[in-house]
Amino acid sequence: MRATRLFCSTLAAVLLAGAAHAAPQYVAAGTPLPRFHLLKEGSHRYLRYLQAADSNTPLDIWQRDIRFEGKRVTIRQRWDAVGKSPSVKWLDSSFEAGTLRPLSHTRITQKDGRKTVEGFAFAPDKVTGLPDLPGNTQKALAIASPEPAFNFEADMELLQALPLAEGYEAQLVLYHPGGPAAPARYTFRVAGSEAIAGPAGPVDCWVVTTDYNQPGTVSKFWFARATQLMVRQESRMPDGRLLVKTLID
């Protein structure tokens, strides 16, 4: 009997260890997201800045608005950049409710007195330029997507809707609309948990990491465990500086 109990305890330990290092779970665009209910209507603002050994250089204030419109979700973003060349960028993205399968995406940038308009339509097998959007500089775009892709510019909300837990890994096909890289799979891993400072005090967070398919680099996200809202992100730049995105409100 004692030997049986020992065997069962050992087997349980092995199974738990295996679960902690399970293969990444592939999340297909268009499938229901387990924690989609954590996405709430409203606005949040983030400060982006570059951190060096002895300095912090502000880049922009970044606002994200979520709205539910029937069977669709709209995420609108505004980036107000500072510095020598101030600029404003507006992003307007629509998604299928419950899955965050991307439907359309527009990006308008105002800089140095010039306005640039970009618009995209997502389909299961490709991403194309919106043909009827006035002034669309991406009208001729046609990118094949062997697997349905998520919109990279809504990665924060996508990760928020996943079942984050110790040892969880997710593999997602992502595409940055109009970017040089084709749609590709990226792996995000819950590396642990940590309490960090938030706008209203300490926040218990899941720590999520990815290398964005660039081995040797690591980007870290902190998602509040209670709401899975992103509180902070850090990414090391090629010049050694740290790019920080931190929640303001």
Automatic annotation (TrEMBL):
Protein keywords: Signal
InterPro entries (UniProt xref): DUF3108
Keyword Signal: yes
Pfam families referenced in this protein's UniProt entry, alphabetically: DUF3108
Signal peptide per UniProt: 1-22
Name under which the protein is recorded: DUF3108 domain-containing protein
